[in-house]
Write a structure and sequence with these properties.
By secondary structure, this protein is mostly beta strands. It has 2 domains: 344 residues, no CATH class; 112 residues, no CATH class. Helix content is 3%, strand content 34%. The chain contains 1 helix and 29 strands. Strands 13, 14, 15, 16, 17, 18, 19, 20, 21 and 22 form a 10-stranded antiparallel sheet that branches. Strand 28 and strand 29 form a beta hairpin. The longest helix is centred in the first third of the chain and has 16 residues.
Length: 484
């Protein structure tokens, strides 16, 4: 049943204040001038206590003598995989360009991590592509894919290929039944850039059963476009997917499974290419006015009602999916990136908006509530005036819901790159800083963080530095963050 504009306007008039604060994360803000103050503020407007530390978080980041990862006092890290240095169990080198990652509980106390490798185009373009492991290859011309990393209780690490021959594996998402959905952020057709098969699909990878990954099958019912991330609603069965695209801006999608479909290991493979229904959102504000782009929201707590519009041709045979809609038919957003399910809905990142969007910003995080059929703006980053400043965050990308409350976000912005947290009440704090300079001393370059995810027991935060491709395990005195 559609949520009509009149229904939403009436609901908003009654409950607007409550809706704005709904959900565990509450109204989050990370713009330098939007942070609530406590006793004093530091040079970038962050609240500090009398010792100069944040009122939330874990204190200031301490420089790393090894020049890799700055962390708060009491925290430490360990390199799990390193492209060009660590080896797969088949003898090849760990592939490069680590991206989206999720951690799963494995047998005998192990943790299994599925790690995307965002490698685009022909294999000759990359020094360390994903090896073409027999039986696990979709397109032998493509360089991307996933590896599965096993971390044993004693600290030993093993790594093997989960899928190969895919392109630009960016983010993705875990399923309630313990598999990983890897997303191709590239929609090249066969014959383009040397590819032998069409790309732009989602594939399922089982970290626990290598045999289940043989003969990879694209899940075409999710559509063919520049996929970024995906989540599954464990209660209703919907899948939500993001698209990272511009000119025109990309879309959020919802896939509804066919009637009587039962999720589980291997069941996606049984579906036809046109199974279920793929839809895009049409948003409207509390006055019932259509919203053309999510960048229109300029205030934390903004709530939009959402209706869903069918996609005409999900495989984009002649026209890209996002171009199949006319003006006024759907709501767009720039740089739709990471997603994570939590608090009864999904968190959705829009990394930034520039001239191609109605309003410019340096990051938004939205929360979609499937019960209310609403999108609520939880995080809004104003355009960062100084990306080199250590406390001014911009360009959110991969995201996870923290077992200690709030969110942990991987930064893919300009200048300094961080992992940062946001508490339930809206304060932000740094967790880590990338100190690996890929440029020069005069013109430093710091690669983005990706793949932020907690271990199943919540004790270890895993994250990647995309270039050259390093997976890190961060441990320390984690604690539940204050709401105030």
């Amino acid at each position: 049943m559609s949520l009509t504009r009149r229904d939403f306007a009436r609901q908003s008039a009654i409950t607007s204040a409550g809706v704005a604060l709904a959900g565990t994360v509450g109204a989050l803000a990370t713009a330098p001038n939007a942070l609530a103050s406590t006793e004093t503020e530091n040079a970038v407007g962050e609240p500090t206590d009398r010792h100069g530390h944040h009122g939330v978080g874990y204190g200031p980041l301490l420089p790393d003598p090894k020049g890799l990862l700055a962390l708060p006092a009491g925290f430490s890290y360990r390199v799990i995989t390193h492209s060009g240095k660590t080896k797969l169990d088949s003898g090849e080198t760990t592939p490069s360009n680590h991206d989206g990652t999720a951690a799963f509980e494995g047998p005998r106390g192990t943790t299994l991590l599925v790690n995307n490798h965002e490698l685009k185009g022909p294999r000759a373009n990359w020094k360390y592509p994903v090896p073409l492991t027999e039986g696990l290859v979709y397109d032998p011309a493509a360089s991307g894919g996933c590896t599965v990393v096993e971390v044993r209780p004693g600290g030993q690490v093993a790594e093997w290929v989960g899928i190969a021959g895919t392109s630009t594996n960016c983010a993705g998402g875990s399923t309630p039944w313990g598999t990983w959905l890897t997303c191709e952020e590239n929609s090249d057709r066969a014959g383009v850039n040397g590819m032998t098969k069409d790309h732009g699909y989602v594939f399922e990878v089982d970290p626990c059963d290598r045999r289940a990954n043989r003969n990879p099958k694209p899940l075409k019912f999710f559509g063919r476009y520049d996929h970024e991330a995906v989540v599954i609603d464990p209660k209703r069965g919907h899948a939500y997917l993001t698209e990272d695209a511009a000119t025109p801006n990309g879309l959020l999608y919802r896939w509804t499974p066919p009637q009587h479909f039962h999720y589980g290991h291997g069941t996606f493979r049984t579906l036809s290419d046109t199974a279920g229904t793929l839809q895009a959102p049409k948003c409207f504000d509390s006055a019932g006015q259509f919203v053309d782009d999510l960048s229109r929201a300029t205030k934390i707590g903004t709530v939009y009602g959402v209706d869903w519009v069918d996609v005409p041709d999900r495989d984009a045979q002649t026209v890209a999916v996002r171009k199949q809609f006319g003006e006024g038919e759907i709501t767009r957003a720039r740089k739709l990136e990471g997603m994570w399910w939590g608090d009864g809905g999904t968190y959705i990142v829009s990394s930034y908006a520039r001239a191609e969007s109605p309003v410019q910003h340096d990051g938004q995080v939205w929360f979609y509530d499937p019960k209310r059929r609403t999108l609520t703006l939880k995080v809004l980053l104003g355009v960062n005036p100084d990306p080199s400043a250590d406390g001014a965050f911009d360009g959110p990308d991969n995201i996870t819901v923290s077992p200690y409350g709030g969110l942990v976000i991987a930064e893919d912005g300009e200048g300094v790159q961080h992992l940062f947290g946001a508490t339930d009440s809206g304060r932000t704090y740094p967790i880590a800083r990338n100190e690996l300079n890929a440029g020069t001393e005069e013109a430093p370059e710091y690669s983005e963080f990706t793949g932020v995810t907690f271990s199943p027991d919540g004790r270890t935060l895993y994250a990647n530095i995309q270039t050259p491709g390093i997976m890190l395990a961060i441990t320390g005195p984690w604690k539940r963050q204050k709401r105030g």
